[in-house]
Amino acid sequence: MDDIAMRAPLAVDGLSYAYGRKRALDHVSFSLAPARVTALLGPNGAGKTTLFSLVTGLFDSRTGRIRIAGHDLRRERSRALSDLGIVFQAQTLDLDLTVERNLRYFAALRGLSEREARKRIAALLEQVGLTEQRRHKVRSLSGGQRRRVEVARALLDRPGLLLLDEPSTGLDIATRRWLVDEVHRLAHEDGIAVLWATHLVDEVRAHDDLIVLEKGKVVARGEVERVVHDTRANDLNEAFTRLTSARAEEHL
Ligand SMILES: Nc1ncnc2c1ncn2[C@@H]1O[C@H](COP(=O)(O)OP(=O)(O)OP(=O)(O)O)[C@@H](O)[C@H]1O
């Protein structure tokens, strides 16, 4: 790992993971730059969720290394995780609590003071357009509104790194568009490094960074335009098909 990667918002080096004999990640290495959106693109089963489980400390691997903002996840776990915000693929809010209560519990878990939490929650609810719904039970919100609450929750503790695991699954078009715009704004204006796992090519923008994962391996990495160019494709859709189906053929 070089010096820049050592201090990157996220640096993954030689990471492997297996479920029993099933290898899910195979020597994965990459680092993220601050203030950039990096799309982690891979077909179903490529290993995206496994990678997220390792980066969030849910799983542990003896093979390879993860550093968040320069802190080794294994040796300085709480410092490393304190810089991380995450939106999971599955819905993780308490449905019987109000929007505000959900956020306050999380703020307390993260060690925010009452005063700081109140200020931060008000600002974030404004930002995600849910001030009016703050006293509503989450159960009464639409899927899109729930996702907005989860984005607000991920940002409560001002993370330098934001992970989103297929966050647009099941969302309406307007919320999907909002999410893609909001995530880019957070990166470009607030300097957050974003890792966005998806299998939907249309959520990726030309100037984003890209990591293509296929069968647990990184098969392409770099700015989207560069990957498209290097694959001799006309667009990302074609590049993605080539990168992933070429691999599939190799395995036949
Ligand atoms: N608990 C498990 N036990 C055994 N194999 C698993 C388990 N979880 C995942 N796998 C396998 O590991 C590989 C990677 O799965 P993973 O869920 O990380 O991929 P993914 O890219 O997130 O896919 P998806 O887009 O479908 O969520 C797949 O082959 C999957 O079948």
TrEMBL record:
User: What single Pfam family name could you report for this chain, choosing any that match?
Assistant: ABC_tran
Q: SMART domains annotated for this entry? A: AAA
Membrane-crossing residues?
A: none
Q: ABC transporter domain spans which residues?
A: 10-240
Q: Which UniProt keywords apply?
A: ATP-binding, Nodulation, Nucleotide-binding, Transport
Q: Which GO terms describe its molecular function?
A: ATP binding; ATP hydrolysis activity
| Family the entry assigns | Belongs to the ABC transporter superfamily.
Q: Which NCBIfam families does the entry mention?
A: PQQ_ABC_ATP (TIGR03864)
Protein's name according to its UniProt entry: ABC-2 type transport system ATP-binding protein
| Species the sequence originates in | Breoghania corrubedonensis
